[in-house]
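Quick log. Single chain, no ligands specified.
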Amino acid sequence: MKLIKLGLATILASGALYAKDVVLEAAGQFPEGVEYNVNTGEFFLSSLTKKGIIKISKDGKVEQFSSEAPLSIAGIHIDYDKNKMYAAGLNRKEAFDKDPNTHGNANLFIYDLSSGKLESNIDLTTVNPNQAAYFANDITNDKDGNVYVSDFKAGAVYKIDNNNKVSLFYKGEKLGLANGLEVVGKNLIVSDVVPRDGKWELVKISLDNPKEVSRVVLKDDIYRGFDGMLVNSDGTIVGVTHNKEKSASFLIKLESKDDWKSAEVLSTKASNTRLTTVARVKDGDYYGLQQNFKNPKQVKWVLENIQLP
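-> predicted structure:
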């Protein structure tokens, strides 16, 4: 099988499997989200500055997936059943500037996965008005096609149904700063990056009844809240958590034996530097997105390959 060079990385030309780290040149892309298309072997990267999504094709080319983005983009997510790419639209500067007259944004962009055409731009803040700040962060969907978006600053989760109708799925005292989220069984599992009594916990919300909410007990101190996270085919959760100095990260796999009343760490792997989120090529084979908040204009970005049994 022919090998093709991509920066410092090597990938198999079939696109079925990437070997080693993927290093790409995309000046000023400043990505926050990463997604892997299992059907085409392509990675997708969002941008906190460029208002667009790029893709890395199986022949090693960096291409524009779509430049149709009214706002910057954090998390991205593929819905294979609908052939859609979902993206979380935000205004990062406004969300953090502490100006009472600017509040940021929380939008859901819906793209056609094949063409990159922007089909819908949904303002999520209409169902959660008068918040000090908004920051659409991460996205997932359930088996019925409903989409869920976390709002980091507003401490909320929005639900968008198959008719693009928006509702406030959950906002309450059980959830602080909402980050990564995934559907696991009949529950939505959300990462809260605000510690309670010195402990970081996940939040479990029933899909059928979002009033049924509980904090997931985790006893291992290595877990300090997930940034990006995903769910494996066996129902385990893999996510990015940072060390105490936030200079590097750990990729952690969690398992629950009691329907996510509690969870335990099955395996961990330290990253080479700080990551924001993670994509899965297959169970056990992951790519963490290395981030450099000190230099968002840098040219080379790295997807760090991490094997986690």
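The first helix runs from residue 92 to 96.
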